[in-house]
């Protein structure tokens, strides 16, 4: 066993980044004096901010039993990895899109390094907590282990799912404890101009709003839209027939975020006509009077037909002063009616109005679809035979397209994330809109392999992939595909075997003979790529350097050596490519400590006057 202290070479950190690493760094930068050794000291911080301990006994905010535990879940790094599953992928080589099968909590943790600040739009449609749905059993100390048990990947008995029943004493608390760490981790992935949409209903909307206020900051609340989800009322309802769900919208920087305008509807365009053949094109007339008092808005005018108008209609004022009125009239921008004798109105030209319409908070099914439409869309993609109620809660793609139009651009390779993917409607919506506007948006979907109890598609993740396979065929004659990944144990032994890695740093120092025997070099490369901060879809080339295979990531910014026999020739040839990071498996050195020293020496001497290369062992 090698001890980290005796190592000439630095260890590569396999732990996923926790949001606290970044927050602590920012805090330390602002208030270095509030740190005692490397830990923040809340008492010092409170005194610097002028807050005394007694002021904080009663405070406004959301709390529930289990909240403190849920907060510690965020800090615990993931001990897993994502593995490419070629057989479940579709056109993986061309696919820029990704479907990940796994518990979204672990997956969001694994995404922290590679996707920090990169996601333009998140849409999630979490379980609404209707009392019938199951809530994934995060037992806060287990994380990956409980997932592996749940999916039968570990030796122990597979876990049972449990429905979070309304009669459960912790009904709301369980749901909040599930949502809190996931939303907190997701926020870190948003770009500064990124935005999140969450669909929800009356079971949890009140809690979700407060929870999101806490995580995103109340100033970043953008809107709570109403989605009219049903197209005919349920007369069987005992009290009210529920017509709508909510769409909560928060921005990473909600105050500054501006939505794209929506395309004008045909009805709106129809309002513009051109009865006087104005060369500036169709226009519609607008009122020139208003009830607001305007001291310069009372002058008399003369119509072209010769009628004297003594002033604006009683109780109103012209909206422009006389000079402005005269210049508008001279420019043929005043409409006096077909006979030239009416009350003047302003001509607003279609060519000059805003290029679209401002979104409203009421989303009607005519524009964004309803639940029946969503079910039809799913059934058109996935054949369930006789039981078409296998997946009950899809959303219409038009609903998600509305969000995409507001929050993403067609030409920015915008990344869209949905970590409660269900049937994958978000992926289909991205493809449809790209097809329509020639866009290049990309998506990442995360879905738990929740059992369906149905043989053809045993898990919801199978449905997600099948729907997207069929949608890709249909939308762009098979040129659309995705890479399919699944959450699993790290390829590095220290993480696996059910090891309780409470102290990750300590665990890391126990590395030795650490690569799992069956780990393929592809799997190792994917794990290291992700943990070194590269996106999953980054292309990797295999080079021959010094007679050995070396994996080159992004034009050799990162070089990975997964072989067993490193030589100084290989090191020299890698260094000549000037990567910023070289990762070498520990086993590549065998017992040759001299090779380690020489390799490090080669790197160090090449760094004289050049941008630094760092060499780390894994
Ligand atoms: C309401 S559905 C989403 C439906 C989706 N919007 C659609 O249009 O098909 C919520 C999904 O989240 C999944 N889910 C629940 N807990 C999860 C977790 N911890 N990780 C990943 N997915 C989860 C459930 O399996 C379910 O399929």
Please render the helix and strand layout as text.
Layout lengths: L9 E2 L7 H12 L4 E2 L2 E2 L1 H7 L18 H9 L4 E5 L12 E5 L2 H7 L8 E6 L19 H7 L20 H19 E11 L4 H12 L4 E8 L15 E8 L14 H5 L12 E5 L1 E2 L10 E2 L5 E2 L7 E2 L3 H9 L3 E2 L9 E5 L12 E2 L1 H4 L2 H11 L15 H11 L7 E4 L6 H13 L4 E6 L12 H16 L6 E8 L14 H5 L12 H11 L8 E6 L2 E6 L4 E4 L6 H9 L4 E4 L8 H14 L7 E4 L1
Parallel strand pairs: 1-25, 5-19, 5-20, 6-7, 6-18, 8-17, 18-19, 23-24, 24-25
Antiparallel strand pairs: 2-3, 4-20, 7-9, 8-9, 10-16, 11-14, 12-13, 15-16, 21-22, 22-23
Helix pairs in contact: 3-6, 4-6, 6-7, 12-13, 13-14, 17-18
The structure holds S-adenosylmethionine (SAM).
Describe this structure in words.
The chain is of the alpha/beta class. It has four domains: 19-75, no CATH class; 94-262 and 357-489, Vaccinia Virus protein VP39 (Rossmann fold), CATH 3.40.50; 266-352, no CATH class; 501-617, no CATH class. It contains 18 helices and 25 strands. It has a ten-stranded mixed β-sheet, with helices on both faces. Strands 1-25-24-23-22-21 form a six-stranded mixed β-sheet, with helices on both faces. A three-stranded antiparallel β-sheet has the order 10-16-15. The longest helix is centred in the N-terminal third of the chain and has 19 residues, at 171-189. The two termini are 14 Å apart. The model is unreliable at 1-5, 155-159 and 495-513 (pLDDT under 50). Residues 103-104, 125, 127, 136, 393-395, 420, 422-423, 425, 446-448, 450, 460 line the site of S-adenosylmethionine.
């Amino acid at each position: 066993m090698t001890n980290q202290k005796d190592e000439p070479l630095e260890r590569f950190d396999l732990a996923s980044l926790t949001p606290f690493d970044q927050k602590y760094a920012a805090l330390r930068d602002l208030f270095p004096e509030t740190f005692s050794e490397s830990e923040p000291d809340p008492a010092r911080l409170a005194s610097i901010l002028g807050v005394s301990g007694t002021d904080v006994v009663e405070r406004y905010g959301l709390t529930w039993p289990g909240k403190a535990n849920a907060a510690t879940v965020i800090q615990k790094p993931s001990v897993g990895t994502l593995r490419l599953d070629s057989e479940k992928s579709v056109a993986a080589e061309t696919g820029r899109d990704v479907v990940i099968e796994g518990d979204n909590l672990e997956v969001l943790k694994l995404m922290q390094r590679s996707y920090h600040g990169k996601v333009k739009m998140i849409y999630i449609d979490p379980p609404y907590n209707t009392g019938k749905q199951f809530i994934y059993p995060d037992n806060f100390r287990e994380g990956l282990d409980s997932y592996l048990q749940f999916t039968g990947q570990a030796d122990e008995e597979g876990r049972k799912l449990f429905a979070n029943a309304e009669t459960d004493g912790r009904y709301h608390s369980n749901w909040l404890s599930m949502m809190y760490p996931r939303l907190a981790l997701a926020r870190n992935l948003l770009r500064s101009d990124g935005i999140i949409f969450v669909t929800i209903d009356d079971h949890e909307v009140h809690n979700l709003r407060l929870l999101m206020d806490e995580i995103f900051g109340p100033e970043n609340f953008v809107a709570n839209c109403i989605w009219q989800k049903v197209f005919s009322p349920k007369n069987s309802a005992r009290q009210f027939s529920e017509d709508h769900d909510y769409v909560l919208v928060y921005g990473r920087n909600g105050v500054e975020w501006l939505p794209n305008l929506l395309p004008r509807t045909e009805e709106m365009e129809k309002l513009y006509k051109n009865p006087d053949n104005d060369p500036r094109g169709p226009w519609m007339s607008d009122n020139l009077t208003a009830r607001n008092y305007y001291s310069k808005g009372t002058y008399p005018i003369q119509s072209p037909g010769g009628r004297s108008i003594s002033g604006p209609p009683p109780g109103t004022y012209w909206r422009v002063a006389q000079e402005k009125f005269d210049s508008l009239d001279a420019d043929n921008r005043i409409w006096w009616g077909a006979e030239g004798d009416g009350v003047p109105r302003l001509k607003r030209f279609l060519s000059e109005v805003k290029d679209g319409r401002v979104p409203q908070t009421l989303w009607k099914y005519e524009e964004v679809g309803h639940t029946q439409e969503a079910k039809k869309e799913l059934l058109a993609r996935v054949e369930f035979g006789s039981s078409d109620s296998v997946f009950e809660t899809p959303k219409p793609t038009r609903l998600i397209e509305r969000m995409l139009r507001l929050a993403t651009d067609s030409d920015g390779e915008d990344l869209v994330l949905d970590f409660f993917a269900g049937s994958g409607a978000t992926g289909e919506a991205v493809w449809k809109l790209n097809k329509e506007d020639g866009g290049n948006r990309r998506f990442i979907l995360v879905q738990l392999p929740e059992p369906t109890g149905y043989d053809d598609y045993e898990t919801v993740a199978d449905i997600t992939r099948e729907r997207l396979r069929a949608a890709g065929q249909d939308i762009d004659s098979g040129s659309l595909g995705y890479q399919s990944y699944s959450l699993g144990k790290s390829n590095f032994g220290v993480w696996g075997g059910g090891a309780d890695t409470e102290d990750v740093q300590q665990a890391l120092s126990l590395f030795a003979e650490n690569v799992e025997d069956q780990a393929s070099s592809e799997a190792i490369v994917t794990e290291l790529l992700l943990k070194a901060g590269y996106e999953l879809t980054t292309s990797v080339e295999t080079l021959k350097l010094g007679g050995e295979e070396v994996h080159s990531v992004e034009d050799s910014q990162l070089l990975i050596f997964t072989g067993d026999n490193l030589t100084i020739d290989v090191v020299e040839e890698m260094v000549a490519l000037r990567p910023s990071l070289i990762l070498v498996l520990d086993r590549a050195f065998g017992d040759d400590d001299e090779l380690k020293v020489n390799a490090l020496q080669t790197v160090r001497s090449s760094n004289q006057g050049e941008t630094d290369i760092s060499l780390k062992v894994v």
